[in-house]
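I hope you will forgive my troubling you with a question about protein structure. The matter concerns a single protein, recorded as an amino acid sequence and a row of backbone structure tokens. Please examine both parts with care and let me know of anything in them that strikes you as inconsistent. Thank you for your consideration; the sequence and its tokens are set out here:
***
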Amino acid sequence: MVVMDACDLVRLVVNKVVVPPEPRRRGNPGYPRLRAVRLLVYSKLARLENDTWIVRHLKRRRDVVRALGFRRVPHRTTVGRWWRRYSSLLERVFNWLSGLIQLLAPTRLLVVDSTPLVDLRDMEADWGFTGRGAFRGFKLHVAVNQLGLPLKTVVTAGNRHDAPLLPALLEDLEAEYVLADAGYDSKGNREAVRSIGAEPVIAVNPRRGAKRRPKHGRLLKAKRYLVEQFNSLVKGPVLRGSWIRPRGLVKKTSVVTAGLIGLNMTAAEAMLGDEPGLKAVSRHWL
């Protein structure tokens, strides 16, 4: 995708989301929030890893500045404040895209998992554990569909356990099956899955002393790769470690959300071009 195509795609998607007008105020009116959100999303499509890169890119590409609706290049510190200020608007754009993807590809499977976002320096980071050992940082919790595309995400500190977040990852979603590993094994989570009309396919946690065999266990083994591929793509080519420099959970959540918006934007474009799936989408990022 060339740069100007990215600008057009950003304007098309972000403008579809209802952005409430800002109240008038005295003094410098600042930058309209619609343009700010456009820039934050565009920065991920253009693979700009931090605020300094964003400003340098805009200074070299005046055509991009005009295409995004700016009259002048914002200062680096201004862009930095936008990640915190417009976190809720980025989430709104992501949810709108998630709804579009569900219309283009009705959800049959939801695969739920979490992946660590390692950050050793952030004061809000905390120690967590995965199958590969301990880490310090944050966690990205996600539910992906049968195409490996994210429909719902939550970013937390690294010490948050996966299981209590499953209901939040299923909110407003529909599916036939919900797949998850043994970390989500609980009666409450199975009830949460059934409440959306889906059948739970959750691995049995041996620590709970359960002797039952998971129903549709082969399905879990066969489709687990969907979320693993997503985790690899989003932490590699999509985000490129860009969550490390911003400080605080809110800013990191915004950076991750903007990256996921970019991923789903390219996914929707590929699906409209009869190329569904994460494999087709990854060609833009790799």
The chain is about 50% helix and 15% strand. Strands lie at 109-118, 126-130, 133-144, 150-157, 177-180, 199-202. The two ends are 11 Å apart (CA to CA).
